[in-house]
Amino acid sequence: MRVGIPKGLLFCRYHNFYINFFQGLGLEVVLSPDTNKNILNEGVKYSVDEACLPIKIFHGHCAYLKDKCDFIFIPRIMKLYENEYICPKFCGLVEMIENSIPGMPQIISEPIYADSLNNLKKWSYKVGLKFTKNILKINEAFNRALKEQEKYIGGLNDKEFKIKVALIGHPYNLYDSYINMNLVEKLNNLGIGVITEEHIGDSYINKEAEKLFKKPFWTFARNSYGFGSYICKNKLADGIIYASSFACGIDSVVVDLIKHRIEKFPFLELKIDEQTGEAGFVTRLEAFTDMLKRRKVEAV
Fold first, then answer.
1. What is the pTM assigned to this prediction?
2. Strands 112-113 and 163-168
3. How far is CA 218 from CA 78, 115, 230, in A?
4. What's residue 135's pLDDT?
């Protein structure tokens, strides 16, 4: 049997786990291609207008896979850390896909609570028992998937550039080069290096987030705020670029919190949706990087 895995949303971070778990169960894994124009067009066609760009693109990946597999895996990720949740759209992702795209194969939709190893293992049994009654095989697939996931090294930390920016945003906005129009490559070509949150320890990010009046309810909000605050406080970059999806409720709050915290530290918010024009995108990047370079010269 074949299981389709869409290369959207948090696939960029957890693909090692997904792929190895299903392969360990004896399934053939079918992946959608990297995001491209056809994937985007299909996603816009099937998704509700109010959805953010990453959700629309995920619809496109699912539409691509629907006739190429017996099952399709839609990761309904609920929790990664205790007392926190992921973006609310993840909670209803399965229902959005089921009701928007006709002719979908059977969906693997069990909620993923990854705030503890025990909860994640419960998920593996619920899914694994759909394909085999061999508990030992499920355990082996799960352990192999965890081991392969541990090998994943994510994030960016350019060290050869004299000027560096902290790149903030949801992982799927930062690491899908089609969504962000090759943002990292464009910055590098302008002589600007990039650092992302993976290269700052969680303890430092959490300590900064604790300064908020109330603990963030969303994991992405905590990470973004803590990372931006720590970067500014310790002058680990010359500026901050926040890649934000249009219609993202979490970003609309976090961006203002970061601006309030960093005060006059250079900050650029780039709004991304299916209508974003590359020319205007590049113009804003060039203006921001020119400003960073002038500040660097004046500081010498």
1. 0.90
2. unpaired
3. 10, 13, 18
4. 94
